[in-house]
Design a protein that fits this description.
By secondary structure, the protein is an alpha/beta fold. It is built from 13 helices and 15 strands. The strands form 3 sheets. Strands 4-10-9-8-7-5-6 form a 7-stranded mixed sheet, with helices on both faces.
Length: 427
Amino acid sequence: MDKKEIIEKHRRYLFSCVANYYEEPLVVERAKGSYVYDAEGKQYLDFFGGIVTISVGHCNDTVTRAIQEQTEYLQHLSTLYPNEPHVRLAEKLAQITPGRLQKSFFTNSGTEANETAVLIAQLHTQCQDVIALRHGYSGRSHLAMSLTGHAAWRLMPAPAPGIHHIANAYCYRCPFGLTYPSCNLKCAKDMEEAIRTTTSGRIAAFLAEPIQGIGGLITPPKEYFQEILSIVRKYGGLFICDEVQTGWGRTGGKMFGIEHWGVEPDVMTFAKGMANGAPIGATIATPEVADSMQGMSISTFGGNPVTSAAALATIRVIEEEGLVENARVMGQRLRDGLEHLKGKYPVIGDVRGMGLMQGLELVGENKKPDAEAVRRLMEQTKAHGLLIGRGGLMGNVIRITPPLNITRDEIDRALKILDLSFSHLGL
Ligand SMILES: Cc1ncc(COP(=O)(O)O)c(C=O)c1O
């Protein structure tokens, strides 16, 4: 099929919510390392990585080999029969996740990972109420959409009961009109008021991403999670940490995003970058929380030997090639370059994020969100051969998440394209 035919069939045969980026959608034919190639052979430097999923480069040889070898050996069995890749992956997660996290349940997506997390928290505490953050994103099932604090992604007419949203730590636009640090972390302290006024006085869990990805790279201050978790624990709640975007070294210097805040989750969820593009979801919990889920539950494809082999190979590459450290060093180089662009272009109101998970909030006068500037910038970067993402409640945040094995030259090249693209906006 040629490009035109693919775009036409996409429109005709897929749900219309399966939206594409760009005025003329980009039909990608193949990808390798940090690059993707369109139907005409044009090369693009990929700084979005299939929505924060390509951890170790497109079609990474080690991951591809692991998938091929496992496919020839044992493809599917279900969890009714123990198999080696499944248990090796579970053991690996228990070894590298922080604190007492030890037992895993595997599924196929971040949505299911969060569903599982909330279910075990509710079973463990025998309580239904869950607190989530405004602007957060948790997935597309009924429960995950209900947890999501972002109207555009909440398509269900009747949300799941027992879910309450509190203000997030959005310092650039503080929900309380305060300024860090004199705010005294009002956003975290408000948790107590929320529990005492919108729940029965007990909660099952607090679910949060360390850095809100789709929400627009919202990065809480360093004391935030200590502060909020002291309240969560006081009211009997568990902390479910959604590492779907921040996991696997993405934030630089630490394997998991939450480790930057020095707190220990009771449950963690993963997907996306964990298997470099093979469909996976994982929920890990402390033994007593995990074992609260008794009785019948199964995910047919969860813990699939091929996907588990892909995840094990991805984690091996991250560890053996020192990519957690590379994300820190390259992330700093990227951040310095973005701060430089902020000094040059007034349309960049804020630069935020950590490691190789950076965002630019684009604004007009008086911080007015400028989603149109994001749209125009993305057309420019595409024309110059760079892929980036967008996010934020107002659609005015650029998301930059290259593979963790990105090189210095590639960072510099992306910054040059961004500079050139911003210069064309004239803002
Ligand atoms: C933080 C976070 N949690 C959960 C999900 C849902 O993951 P999935 O799309 O694999 O269901 C996403 C997806 O973007 C996400 O960003």
